[in-house]
Amino acid sequence: MRSGAKVAVVGGVFVLVAGGLGYGAYEVLLGGDGAGGTRTVAESSKVRTGPPDKKEVQETAKDFLAAWASGDAPAAALLTNDEAASEPLLAGYAAEAHVTKAVITPGPAVGTKVPYTVKATVSHGSVTKPWAYSSELTVVRGLTTGKALVDWQPTVIHPQLTEGATLRTGESSTAAIEAVDHDGKVLDKETYPSLGPILDSLREKYGDKAGGTPGVETWIEPADEQLPDTTLLTLAKGKPGKLRTTLDADAQAAAEKAVKQYSGASVVAVKPSTGAIRAVANNPATGFNAAMQGKQAPGSTMKIVTAAMLMEKGLVSADSPVECPKEATWQSRTFHNLGHFELPPTDTFTTSFARSCNTAFIKLIDDTEDDTALAKEARDVFGIGLNWQTGVVSYDGSVPEESGGAAAEQYIGQGTVQMNALTIASVTATARTGTFQQPVLVPRSLDGRQLATASRSLSPDVTRQLTGMMRATASWGTGKSAMASVGGDKGAKTGSAEVDGQSTSNSWFTGFSNDLAAAAVVQSGGHGGDAAGPVVAAVLRAGS
What we know:
The structure is a single chain. The protein is an alpha+beta fold. 27% of the residues lie in helices and 22% in strands. It has 16 helices and 18 strands. It has helices spanning 54-70, 73-78, 83-95, 196-206, 249-259, 290-293, 303-312, 349-354, 358-363, 365-368, 373-380, 404-411, 421-433, 460-475, 480-483, 532-543; strands spanning 13-16, 26-29, 99-106, 113-124, 127-141, 148-150, 166-171, 177-180, 216-221, 230-236, 241-244, 265-270, 277-283, 327-330, 333-336, 490-497, 506-513, 516-522. A 6-stranded mixed sheet has the order 2-1-3-4-5-6.
């Protein structure tokens, strides 16, 4: 939350400039209360039905933008289909955002949508700065009046404004930060767009600890006080405080570039020996941090945890022969391998792991004699669900205790298992060393927060076998192609997670190279090695 006095705009001028709609210009001086003296609401005694026609779209957009530009919030609100919700935001444009002049230029209507650009002037005290952005509105038919009205959404005011959020200008309550990587290289939103939401969160949480002084800004204050503000404009810079993170600029740059190849891609890289997060990237880059907060079934990447559990119980070893039929049934649920492949019964567990044989894992369920064994392994060894304190909001995964067929689905990363790129990268990091190190984005020394610790480590023997199986996957298994360009001591695991309602599965991939582990997911990306694999490989090449 930030503070800032509400100051009425006196003598401000709002201007609506003629654009593609072919309308005239409007210029109205504001009174002391920030409201203009005239309304431009078009009344019609005839109740109409059906979608608004071209003329109605033009006239409604013209009247609304003219009223908004003049500062007449009540008149503008009457031209929307939600007067109660729209008027406070429209009035706040001057009173709370301190916009003292706005030039709104509409473009040609596209159906019922009208785009426009806003060139505004924001003033606070003696500080004034220009502010430009673009947005659009949609004209709909009023359900009860039959009038053509603006379909009210907060994005009409600004494209990033969300439900319940407020646009404000004032002195920031937290000082700006200059985030740097572990080597002191500066990290900014422009160079690393995926870090935008993360840097906002870090500033909100650690700005007062970094030694800076606040500035004057225009920002979006979300309805949820737990979420960070979003800075839109800096009118006067404060003195930023330096905040050292665990990120690596080279790995982050590679991650940003890699996720741009696929829509709906996320990747995280973690240093196994320490838990330091080296890279976080998403496409799209703004908004929800899916890489650290997502909740999805991880597909066969979960077999790392399942394999560890089976080997810890002594039910199988990396060199043991296991069955891998085309199909396997467990408590009336039938599971099959991708493409219904099968392997000779003399092939080892390593081969089934490297080829991602689902049925080999399902066939071993009977021997565990404990449906909750996987949930316990995930929690006690891999730290899943232990309330991680990374430094920003993150989701640390979930493997609920299940029984019957639901437990069988978990063995191959389906059903109720919920993960994201961060948690799977951490799973690989734990497999690499045998000991869970809770991932962190800022050092614990910054605030003394309590990090999560797992109750036990993998034995050296199981760790050796597990990493050996991952090396096989990278060398000649399903991860061979993706990992071909990665050097060093390397290992991998692929995954394809089926999702209800999707014709194509989500692509998952995780791997390590030396002391760096990474994981990626690509929505509807198909086989793990095809989409997520190249993303992980690019990050490993840059950071290991």
